[in-house]
Amino acid sequence: MQDLWIEAKKKISQRIPKNSYSLWIKPIQFLKKAGNTIYLGCPNKFCCKWVSENFLDLIRECFFSISEQKFDFEFKVISKHKSTKPKILYSPDQMHISDKFVTKGAKRLHLNQNFVFERFVVGPCNEFAYNASTTFAQSEEWSYGTLLMLASTGLGKTHLSQAVGHWILNKKPETRVVYVTVEDFMNELIYAIRTKQVDSFKERYRKSCDVLLLEEIHFLSGKEKTQIELAHTLDFLINSKKKVIFTSCLPPNKIPRLSKEILSRLSSGLITPINFPDYETRLKIITQKAKEQKLNLNEDIIDFLASKITKDVRHMESVINCLKAKVELMKAKIDLDLVKEIVSHFVSPEPILTLEDIMKLVCRYYRIDPDSLRSRSRKRIYSNARNIYVYLARKYTNKSVLEIAKSINRTHSTAIYAFERIKDMLKKDVNIKKQIAFLDHKIAEVNYL
Length: 449
Known about the structure:
The chain has 20 helices and eight strands. By secondary structure, the protein is α/β, with parallel strands linked by helices. It has a five-stranded parallel β-sheet with strand order 5-6-7-4-8, sandwiched between helices. It has a three-stranded mixed β-sheet with strand order 1-2-3, covered by helices on one side.
């Protein structure tokens, strides 16, 4: 059966692009056959889900063409080791370029061992950037040029950039990876010019570099000499088929005082934006961070955090760390009041929509009164408006599911069901989609009430 899987993989490799095969199919291992079910092992949960949703039919087809038998398939995560921390196969000295090629004034930056693909939480907001990064790391032939990850602070662009470095060094420890910020690149260049070590500087970033991870390119603004040297460096690396990753808070065309040469080079590759995490992704991030810190948070607390901290992942990590410190140092009991107290230090008390605002808008749109929304009536007009109220309340307010449920005399589970029902209907019901779009537009207006 192992040989059958090998043959099936060969057939699959002929049917899909090389990058897709290398990223999704090649790592899958045959585990066992039980009855009519074949179990295949994937490196992580996301891979299991993605392969199951996108390649299952192709896998079935290729197996059938070889064996003329129809099998069921199940995908399992391969447990490589018991430790929750990823195993690093290279020494700390291999996480930066050899001292031989670092000028005396250079600041050496190390890769953060926590910034690996296994610890990156994937959701709709960052799925494209994650897929591009993993493919970029694993592909021998990358056909999209450089890779630019575009995101506001705290959304994971540095995590993915360094994860690429970790993955490459784990697989090929001899690879020369240079990780540097634009500011440090500029400082090294200045020092090299002053001390007449320009040749050593060029050696480091050109001939002695296989992978360049360049952070914060938005700080290139107005730095003319740095832009000139970087343009020459990029030309050398790209022409030599080296890998280059950039991160930035601004798209290249929005960075002021950027030369046409640099603008062209930054824009010529693949640009992958990372957006603010949606509610479901925030839930996953907070759940994972709490698990890593061995904190047992109940559903209401996780929901509150996901509703309140909506933009910066670092804030989520900081809140979890503060909770852990309170438990360890103060012997505090974790409850919603404690969480609210900690969150207040991270989230500014800006005016936000209230449940009353959302209820008023929904009632006006569907021409019903608030009492009908809170009633036990199951009439379609009321139940539909009730479900949409829950959906909008979770989307636009900082209230927990329990608070939203209580506002319409419902239970926590009923509110969860209402939210999920609208989410599902948005995918297939055109009328619901139009209604939500209209209400979204109304909420976006400054004086919609």
